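Section 4.2 – Deliverable D4.2 (structural model, holo form)

The reporting period included a commitment to supply a predicted holo structure for the target in complex with nicotinamide-adenine-dinucleotide. Inputs used:
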Amino acid sequence: MKVCWIGLGNMGLPMAGHLRDAGHDIVGFDLSPGARSAASAAGVPTADSVETAADGADVVCTMLPKGEHVRAALLDSGVLDISNPEALVIDCSTISATDARDIGSAVAATGRRFLDAPVSGGTTGAQNGTLTFMVGGARADLEAARPLLEAMGARLFHAGELGAGQSAKMVNNMMLAMNMQSTCEAAVLAQRLGIDPQTVIDIAGVSTGDSWALRNYYPVAGAVDAAPSSRDFAGGFAVTLMRKDLGLALDAAAVHGIDATATAEVARRLERLIDEGRGSLDFSALIQLVDGTVGA
Ligand code: NAD
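Output (structure tokens):
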């Protein structure tokens, strides 16, 4: 299978690596020359233009920051024209369900197939090939995509029609953001009370305070070796990207008349970190507004 992979960032590069390992003929592209060099160094072949990467591709995958980037990469470029006329286009980015439906319709108008297939599991899930995929679109297209998605993930859900994968991802990230905010507040309070971080994780991790954020991304350095907090919040899931996801959730909440007070507060805090020039840090840097490193 010839695969064109667009977006070789924190998530895209390790995901593309799994497709290469599964034996696919993959060519990657990223607007950033640095990302292309990192991909080459990691053994993922790259092209200098998106059109070259997409030439004759049976599958086109995108892993890009926002909807506008997915539109630019798929619709404003020559990618669709140059790929296989029956190509399967899979967007793994987190974008709005509305954008996913619009892009899907534009792809379908060219005779090609489109799935929204956002992921959960973070950069460690991408590296370990243990991501959860939540897919929107035709079930037959999901079945065609299954071998590829299973090479990158451990769990695969059909959420429903086009855009449903994005809706599922959006509500997941609402919960993740608030779990992280509550973990940050609890972690700082535990420290001030003299409780060791590992003790908090050991107890809450098997009790009613459990969450993915607690066990995998505990925001105190050294508590979880693989957590971004143990490497000065580098890599991971950027504050700007979580702010984007909460923006999507708040827009949807407004449309549906939902009181999303806690979501709005965490979004405000992420905005504060961005104002402080900390937008590229992992979102567990929310702890810096709790412990006073940055004024809330
Ligand atoms: P990232 O910023 O590390 O990587 C995005 C890459 O896309 C960058 O290298 C950038 O240069 C490239 N890019 C932007 N526009 C492009 C274009 N038009 N053509 C080609 N390349 C382009 O972001 P990431 O952390 O890999 O996240 C990607 C997506 O996955 C986002 O939608 C994010 O919300 C979602 N996501 C991230 C995580 C995580 O833990 N990082 C987890 C789940 C989902």
